[in-house]
Specification:
With about 180 residues, the chain is α/β, with parallel strands linked by helices. Helix content is about 35%, strand content about 15%.
Length: about 180
């Protein structure tokens, strides 16, 4: 047991935030904000997203503690849309960037935002992410977000939270709002 005067080494875990409810990305961003408050660096790779979100502006203020990169086109790819080779290329390049960030030693927290949807759309394979999970350094916290998290990931993860929609104003026609959903 370490002495009280010596800090214990950081042990990172694997989180999954999934389900149909709102809050998966928000939870991951909150974790990055908390880490920044303790001077820990976070890397967030956003799959399928290429448009402007409030977190991109906030991350610039918190740089270099929070780094966000987007791997999608200008608009979010929806589950009902057909994806093409450009979407697949962007997802694969994004996964390579996330892997480099995770293994770089620079980041304590690495988030793959909407990666479960990227796998659901077959932009990446379930095994691609299982391999990434197996490569996770001991001192990195890894967070995977998105609807449709495969059972194999859930079995491998240390923490799984499923967001359940009980009620949402989208059903009344309210669009995504700046500062709240985007």
């Amino acid at each position: 047991m370490p002495s009280p005067s010596r800090p214990q080494p950081f042990r990172g875990f694997i989180h999954i935030y999934t389900g149909n409810g709102k809050g998966k990305t928000t939870a991951a961003l909150g974790l990055a904000l908390r880490a920044a408050g303790r001077k820990m660096r976070s890397y967030i790779g956003q799959f399928l997203k290429g448009q402007s979100y409030g977190e991109l502006v906030a991350a610039k203020v918190l740089a270099p503690l929070i780094t966000i990169e987007q791997f999608g086109r200008k608009g979010f790819v929806h589950v009902s849309q057909v994806v093409d080779e450009e979407d697949i290329r962007r997802a694969r390049e994004g996964l390579a960037k996330c892997r480099r960030a995770m293994r770089s030693g620079r980041f304590r927290l690495v988030v793959l935002d909407e990666v479960a949807v990227a796998v659901h759309l077959r932009l990446l394979s379930e095994k691609d992410i299982l391999d990434l999970m197996a490569e996770k350094p001991e001192d990195v916290e890894l967070v995977l977000t998105g609807r449709f998290a495969p059972a194999s990931w859930v079995a491998r993860a240390d923490l799984v939270t499923e967001m359940t929609e009980v009620k949402h104003y989208y059903s009344r026609g309210v669009q995504a709002r700046d500062g709240i959903e985007k």
